[in-house]
Amino acid sequence: MLTLQMYSLSNIKKVLILTIWLLFSGCSLLPLSKPSHVALENKINQLSKMLVDLNETIDLNEAQSLSRISVMYAQKLAHKYDVVSPPLWHNTLVNVGVKERGLCYEWSEDLLIKLFKKKYATLQFYTVGANIGGYFEHNALAVSAKKGNYRKSILLDAWRGSGDLYFIKLEKDKKYQWKNREKLYRSIKMKYHH
To answer: Residue 143 falls within a domain, yes or no?
Structure first.
């Protein structure tokens, strides 16, 4: 006869989470819907306009490029991570080992690495965090005009919408108190930016 003592606490958690997920996923989790081409184009145009309105030094072509890459790559990451919604549930599945990736910092890091491939002359990136060190720590990416200020940037948060890129002026985001994570940005840049 098997007893609970034979299993590590970690394995018990994984089995319990997986069992709960299997029991309730049909009722509580909906598959992510794929936005229409028109919806994606509208989102790209909206982000591009926000960027050029942010500062007159931002090149329209660069704003359009960044917007297209960010919106479309967030969709690709959702597929790559095999995302389930809501995001906190996906985090739980990652943390217990059912899913491999899809934590907020992974979304922002993967998007930043993708954007590094373009050498934007008029745009500057930041890694930002809220509740740093706390249980509900959240990380995202922000973009401003070159030599700008992260406080006057646009937040790019692919995690919050499970791949449906959420963006807003950083100072207008009422959900989080964002802080610049410059050391984290520099370490990512050194590792991936050529």
So the answer is: yes
pLDDT of 132-186, one tens digit each? 999 899 999 999 999 999 999 999 999 999 999 999 999 999 999 999 999 999 9
Number of domains in the chain: 1
Contact predicate 167/42, CB 8 Å: no
Task: Annotate the chain with DSSP letters as a single string.
Answer: ---GGGS-HHHHHHHHHHHHHHHHHHHH--PPPPPPHHHHHHHHHHHHHHHHHH-TTS-HHHHHHHHHHHHHHHHHHHHHHT--SSHHHHHHHHHTTSSS---HHHHHHHHHHHHHTS--SSEEEEEEEESTTSTT-EEEEEEEETT--GGGSEEEETTTTTTS-EEEEGGG--S---EE-HHHHHHHHHHH--
Does 23 reside within a domain? Answer: no
* Domain containing residue 144: 11-17+35-192
Burial class (CB in 10 A: 0-12, 13-18, 19+), 142: buried
The C-alpha atoms of residue 141 and residue 130 are separated, in whole angstroms, by 12
Please state the pTM of the whole predicted model: 0.82
